Amino acid sequence: MMEHMGNSDSILAKSLRGWEPGTVTLTRRVDPWQAGAFASLIGIDPPPLREGDPLPPMWHWFTLLEHPATTALAVDGHIADGGLLPPVPGRRRMFAGGRLTLDRPIPIGSELTGTTSVTNVAVKNGRSGEMAFVTARTDLSADGELVGAEEQDIVYRSEPDGTEPRKLSRPEPAEPSPEGEWKLRVETDPVLLFRFSALTYNGHRIHYDKPYVTEAEGYPDLVIHGPLLALLALELPRRNAPERPLRSFSYRLVRPAFVPAPVIAAAEPPAADGTTEIAVAAEGVSPSLTAKAVLA
Predict the structure, then answer these.
(1) Helix, strand, or coil here: 156?
(2) Staple 74 to which of 80, 100, 225, 296, CB 3.0 to 4.6 Å?
(3) Whole-angstrom Cα distance, residue 1 to residue 175?
(4) How far apart are CA 224 and CA 207, in angstroms?
(5) Angle value at C-alpha 119, between 118 and 122, nearest 5 degrees
(6) DSSP string, 34-75
(7) Predicted pLDDT of residue 174
(8) Any residues with CB less than 8 A from the CB of 228 and at least 6 apart, and which?
C-alpha cells in the first residue's frame, strides 16, 4: 500500500512507515432534511425528496458524517488522531480529488452504509515541497445492497511547530471564465462557506476562520471547500440531463479558490458515449476543479 517517491528518510516518509489503518464503517438513514438544506444553500428548488426518491449523486456526503468530540480536535479543527488520519507531525490537509461510480441511485429513506479503508499512500515531491497522497475507498450500500463506490484523494504536508508557514497570493484575474452550453454561477461569501461547513460537520478552520487561514496556513482568504466545487460540477448534468442517471464521476482539484469570487461551472452536453468534461473556476481564474462525468 505504501509507495515511496523522494527521500525515504524525510519526516513524512518516516511517520508513515508501517502505518496500517483499519476499516471505518458508518450507517445512517438518508434523511431528506440534509438534501433540502443543501438545495437551499446553493439557492435551488429541492429535488423530489419523498421516501424512495433518488438522492442526487454525491449528496450522500451529507449523510455519512462522523461527529468527533470537541476534545478530540486538533488546532486546525480536524480530529487530532486516529481513524484514517495519517500520523503526520504538524499535519496540513488538502482535498485533491476523487472518483465515484454508481450502479443505481441511493433512495431517500434507505439505510446507507459506507465502509472505508485506505487503499494507497504515496509520498511525492511537488512544487510546494514533499506531500503524502492518501487514497481512501468507500463501498456504498443501501438497505444492504451494494450501490456504488467512492474514492477520495487527500494530500498532507508536514509543518511541525516552528515551521514558517508558506504564503500564497490571491490569483490575479487573467483568465476567461469556463464556457459551455451548460453553465452555473454561484456567488460565494463567508456565510455560504460557514453553512456548508456546518452541513458537512467540517471543522477545518481554513473555511471560516480568516485569522487562522491567513496567519497559520498562509492562504490569502477563506478557502472554498473542494467538495462544494465537486457538487457544483455535478449540478450541471443533474439539472440539464435529469433523465440520464450518472454512472461515474472523476475530478481533480488543481488549485484553491477563495471568497468572495463567484464560482462558475461549465460543460458541454455529453458526447455519444455519455461523457462530458466539466470545469469549475473562480471567476477570471484558471479552473480549480476539472472533472469528467459519464451519464447513462
Answers:
(1) strand
(2) 80
(3) 39
(4) 6
(5) 95
(6) HHHHHHHHTT-PPPP-STTPEEPTTGGGGTS-----GGGB-T
(7) 76
(8) 193, 196
Q: Into which CATH architecture does domain 1-162 fall?
A: Roll (3.10)
Residue 217 three-state SS: coil
- The C-alpha cell of 213 is what? 487561514
Cβ atoms of 236 and 265 within 8 Å: the answer is yes
pLDDT at 5 (0 to 100): 47
Alpha helices in 59-203 (DSSP H): 190-199
Q: Using an 8 Å Cβ cutoff, are 263 and 233 in contact?
A: no
| DSSP assignment letter at 105 | P
* Superfamily classification of domain 164-296: Hotdog Thioesterase (3.10.129.10)
Q: Tell which residue, 182, 196, 172, 192, has the closest CA to residue 265.
A: 182
In this prediction, the residues of the chain whose per-residue pLDDT falls under 70 are 1-9, 126-128, 161-162
Instruction: Give CA–CA dist 53/60, Å, rounded.
Output: 13
Helix (H, G, I), strand (E, B) or coil at 190: helix
The boundaries of every CATH 3.10.129.10 domain in the chain are 1-162, 164-296
Residues 6+ apart with CB under 8 A from 258: 170, 219, 220, 221, 222, 223, 224, 282
